[in-house]
Amino acid sequence: MAASRHRRRARITAVAAAAAAVALTTGLTTGCDAVNKALDCVQTADSIADSVTDLQQAVENAANDPTQADESLTSIEKDLNKIGDRTDNADVNKAVDNLSKAVDNVRTAIKDGDNTPDITPVTDAAGELTKVCTP
Question: Given its phi and psi angles, is residue 89 left (phi above 0), alpha (psi -120 to 50 degrees) or beta?
């Protein structure tokens, strides 16, 4: 299981790094503002990927510390607000909305007593956000 998380995190990080490289190259022809927005998106998506990894670990360890999952969800929400405030890209906004809904569903499941909620929709939505943040 740890190897799977490591591979998923490595894949998300690799995508983010590639997106940053493309953003930098694209900036030479599209201007600084577009590059800054793309880099903000990539950096925030990378931060969300870290928070999703933390969420996975928190859900696995929910019996030991149920507050960890809530902290991870809050971190993801803060990062989503950053992206939402900085972009006018429809695909990014849709990915942000999907991830927000997935986070809300996990938070509701935890409040309803589910100590091991299905976070697959969160990881899927985070992966989609990483894809659309690639310029």
Answer: beta
State yes or no: pLDDT of 58 exceeds 80.
Answer: yes
In 3D space, the residue among 106, 109, 19, 16 whose CA is nearest the CA of residue 54 turns out to be: 106
pTM over 0.70: no
Domain count, the chain: 1
The DSSP call for residue 115 is S
Identify which has the larger pLDDT, 50 or 37: 50
Burial bucket for residue 62 (CB in 10 Å: 0-12, 13-18, 19+) = middle
The rounded distance, in Å, linking the Cα atoms of 92 and 90 is: 5
Buried b (16+ CB within 10 A) or exposed e, 80-94: bebbeeebebeebee
Pairwise CA distance, residues 108 & 123, whole Å: 17
CATH number at residue 54: 1.20.120
Range of the domain at 116: 2-132
Cα angle for residues 56, 23, 25 (degrees, 5° grid): 145
CA 103 to mean position of chain CA atoms: 10
